[in-house]
Amino acid sequence: MDPARVSTGIGGLDAAIDGLRIGDNVVWHCEDLDDFARMLEPYVAGARRERRRLVYVRFADHLPLVGGDDVQVHRLDPAEGFEPFAIAVHDLVEETGREAFYVFDSLAALLDAWHSDLLLTSFFKVTCPFLYELDTVAYFPLLRDEVSAATVAGIRETTQVLFDLQVVGDETYVHPLKVDGRSSATMFFPHLIAGERAIPVTSSAASARLAATRGRMRRRPDHWTRLVDDAFDALDGSVAEQRDAHALLADALLGRDDGRMAGLARRHLSLDDLLVVATRLVGTGHIGGKAVGMLTARAILADDIDGRFVDHLEPHDSFHLGADVFYHYLVSNGWWGHRLAQSHPGTFLSAGATLHELMPTGRFPASVREQLLDMLGHFGQAPIIVRSSSLLEDNFGNAFAGKYDSFFLTNQGSPEERLEALLDAVRAVYASAMSEEALRYRLSRNLAEVDEQMAILIQRVSGDHHGQLFFPHAAGVANSSNLYTWDATVDAEAGMLRLVFGLGTRAVDRTTSDHARIVALADPLNGRLSDPEDLSAFSQRRVDVLDLAAGRQAAVPLSELVATDVGADWSLFTSPDTAVLRRLGERERERGRPTAVRATPVVADFRGLLGETAFPTLMRDALATLAAAYDYPVDVEFTVNMTSAGEPRIGIVQCRPLQTRGPGQSVAIPEVADDNGVLFAAPGEFMGGNVNLPIDWVVMVRATPYLGLGSPQRHGVARLVGEVNRRLKDDSFLLLGPGRWGTTTESLGVPVRFAEINHAAALVEATDAAGNFRPELSYGSHFFQDLVETGIFYAAVFDDRPGVTFHPALVAARENALLELVPDADPHLAAVVHVARFDDLALYSDVVSQRVLCVTRGAVRSP
Fold first, then answer.
1. pLDDT tens-digit profile of 685-738?
2. How far is the C-alpha of 97 from the C-alpha of 485, rounded, in Å?
3. What is the pLDDT of residue 507?
4. Which SUPFAM superfamilies match (predicted)?
5. Which of 63, 413, 548, 811 has its CA 20 to 30 A from that of 95?
6. DSSP assignment, residue 730?
7. How far is it, in rounded angstroms, from Cα 210 to Cα 228?
8. How far apart, in whole angstroms, are the C-alpha atoms of residue 655 and residue 634?
9. Helix-helix angle 260-268:239-254, to 10 degrees
10. Phi/psi of residue 219, nearest 5 degrees
11. In 474-577, where do the E strands start and end?
12. Nearest-angstrom CA–CA distance, 719 and 721
C-alpha cells in the first residue's frame, strides 16, 4: 500500500478521486452537519482501522461531530480574536506533530465570533498550509447557506480537496470540485454513493434532475452584509429586536463588551450611530480605539441635555478601514509566518523589524481597492487624513500616544493617483504598527501577547482653502485635568489647552523650535508667560498647512500668513509683538532713523479667541462633560474654525482617557543651608505632582561638548543614553540635558526615543545660552503622555530666570561611571555623557508653593 495514500473510508470514492493523499485538507461544502456526518463516519472508521491519531478541534456550539476515548479533543475559543485563535491552532498542530488525522468544527461557526468572511478565509489560508506541511489529513465542514461564494472561492484556492455534498431523500451525492494533482475522465462529475460504490452521474438528464433538486440558485451575501441588513430591519422592529441588533453590531464594530472603553461606547452610541459607521466601513472588523473614542465623545456632547454643544460642533463624515483588512493583508502577502514569530518573546522584536520592512511593499485585494476608490469619490478632492486606530489605542491605561503614524493627504490629482497615495499611506500606518518604538512600548506595558490589530480612521481634514493652502484657524490638545499649574491660583480641574494656529501637528509633536500657546481654562487670558520677552520667545512662528499645489504638508511663516484673508479677524489669533517692536525701535533710534516699522511683527497669543468668543467656555464645559461621562480625565484633540458670524465651530477629532496622576501628598520643601549642594532649585515649571524622591544616579549630557558634536554624533549620544537607561533600569536615576529631550531635531536637544529614557525617575531639561538650547514644557503633547503613563517626573530649569539655582558642576565633579556601566561605549563620548553616583541626593516638589528642588541631604538645614 502506498504510504502517501489515505482512504476516505469509502472504497468507491477513493477509486473515483484516486484516493486522498497525506497532506490533504478536505473541505465538504454541504447543507448541514447531518449530511457531513455521512462522510465523516467512514473517514473516522478508516482512521481507526489504520491506528491513526484522531484530533478533534472543537470551537463551535453545535453538537460534537466525533467522540470516543481515542479522540484527542481540544476546545478553543474563537471569541478571543482571530490572532489568538489562529496561533492556538498553529501551536496545537505543531505540538501534535506529523501524520495526525483532524476533524474541525463547522467553519461557519467562526463567523459568529468574527462577523467576517474575510477573516474566515484568512484563517483557512494560514492553517491549511501548515497542516499540509506536517503531512496531516483534515476534514472541514463548510455549510452552504452560511458563507458567501467569495468565501468558498477563497477556500477553494487554498485547499487540496473540495467536495460539494448533496443529500436528496435517502441518496447521497458527492461532487468533487477540486482534487489537487489528480484527474480522470469522470472525476469531476457528481457521484452517487451507494454503500462502498461511487457511481458517476454522467448523463445529461440525470445531471439536470440532480441540479433541479437545489431549486433556484441564489447568491448568498457575506455574513457582514447580512448582519447590517438585519440591523436596518431592526430599526422598524421591537425594542428587544433593536437591542439585539445593537449588541451584535457593537460586537462587530467596537469589540466584545469586556472593557471599560467598549462599555462606554455601547452606552452612548445608538443603533443609528452604529449603522452610520457600518455604511462607512471598508472591509470588515473592529474600527479601533481612536475611532471609538472620537465617535463616543461626539455622541456624549451631542446628547448633552442642555444642548450647549450641538450648534458649535463641526460635523464629520469619517470612514473606517476595518481591522480584518490588516490581517488579510498579512496573510494574502505571505507574511503570516513573521506574525507567528512575534508570538514568541525571543523573536517579538526581530520579527516585527522584518514586517516593518515588508509592510510598505504589499498588495491589497481588489475588493478593498474598489471600496477605497468609492470612498475617495465621496470626499472628492477634499484633503483627508489617514490615522492609525488600533485595537489597543486610546484605551484606559494605554494611550499609545504618538506610537503609530498618521498621514495628511492633499488628495489632489486623478482618482488613480489619489488611490495610490491613499494605499501608500495605509501601508505606512500598517508599517508603523511594527516600528521598534511601538513594539517596545507594548513590551513596557506588558501588551506583547495581547491581540493588536490595526484599523484605520480616515477623516476629512478640518479647515478651508486659503489660496493654494488648506488649514483650520486653530487646533490643539485639550486636557480636562491640568497638572501643569504655574501658580497656586490656577484651578487644575478647569482643564487646559495646548493651542496653535493651523494644523494641530505643532501641538502634539516635539519637532520644531516653535511653542504652542498654553491656556489654563480657569483663566484663559492669564498666561504662563507674562513678560513680553518670554511671550515673544515662546511663541508660534511657523504654521503647518497643506500646500495643495505642491501636494504635501508645509510649514509657512506666520508673518507671511498675516496678510492673507482667512475668513476671520486676525485679531482673534494674534497681537502685536511688543517685545520685537521695542527691540526694533531701539535699534532704529540708535541708528538715528524713524521708529516706524513697515511690517508689524505679531505673536500668536489668541487673545481675541480666548477673550472675545465663547470658545474657552465651550471647551471648558465640553471637557467637564466628557470627563464626567468617562468618569476619568480626558485628552482631546480638536480643531477650531470661525464662521462668517464670528462663531467658533469645534471639531472633536480624537478623545481618549488621560493617563494622569493627582498631585499626591503634600511635600515640605526643605530649607537649604549650603547652595553648593543644590543641583537645581526653581519656581514652577515642573510636572508630576508632589514628590520626595531619592536619586541614586544622575545621567547628564554636558551642554558645551554636546554643542561641539555633529548630527551623527548627537544621535550617537542618544543611543548611548538609551544603553545607560537599560543598565540603570532597577535604580532611581535622573536624566539632565540641554534643551529638549525626545526632540527629532538634534539642534534643539537630545534626540532620544522614549524607549531610551523610559526607566528614568525624573527628566530635567536645562537652558544653555551658547547652544541656544531651551526647554519646552510639553504638557498635552504625545511626549507628555508618555511621561505621565510611565510615572516620570519632569522639570525645566531656566537658569537665566530670577529665583533659579543651577549647579551642573555638582555632577561633573563626581567620577564618571559611564565606561564602568557601558564598557563598550565610545570613550570620546565620556566627555559628553557623565554618569555620577549619589547616595544622598533627593528631588522635592510641591504643587501649592510651586517649587522644585534637587539637593544633597548634607546641604539641607536641620529642622
1. 787 778 899 999 999 999 999 999 999 999 999 999 999 999 999 999 999 999
2. 62
3. 78
4. Glutathione synthetase ATP-binding domain-like (SSF56059)
5. 63
6. T
7. 34
8. 7
9. 140
10. -85, 120
11. 474-479, 496-501, 517-520, 542-547, 552-557, 575-576
12. 5
Length of the chain in residues, anyone?
863
The identity of residue 550, as a single letter, is A
Place of cell 452517487: 192
SS3 per residue for 648-714: EEEEEEEEEECCCCCCCCCCCCCCECCHHHEEEEEECCEECCCEEEEEEEEEEECHHHHHCCCHHHH
Which is more confident, 803 or 414? 414
- Could you tell me which residues come within 8 angstroms of residue 47 by beta carbon, excluding any fewer than 6 positions away? 9, 54, 101
Task: Choose between 779 and 436: higher pLDDT.
Answer: 436
For 496, residues 6+ apart whose C-beta sits below 8 A from its C-beta are: 478, 479, 482, 484, 518, 519, 520, 521, 779, 780
Is residue 169 packed enough to be buried (19+ CB in 10 Å), middle (13-18) or exposed (0-12)?
A: exposed
249 phi, psi to nearest 5 deg: -70, -35
Task: Read off the DSSP letter of residue 838.
Answer: E
Residue 543 burial by CB count (10 A; 0-12/13-18/19+): exposed, middle or buried?
buried
In this predicted structure, what is the pLDDT of residue 213? 72
H or E segment to which residue 21 belongs: strand 20-21
Contacts of 835 (CB under 8 A, 6+ apart): 697, 698, 699, 700, 724, 816, 817, 818, 821
Band the pLDDT of 581: cuts 50, 70, 90.
low
Q: Give mean pLDDT, residues 472-476.
A: 96
Residue 835 and residue 816: Cα distance in Å, rounded? 5
Q: CA of 144: how far to CAs of 41, 151, 166, 220, in Å?
A: 20, 11, 10, 9
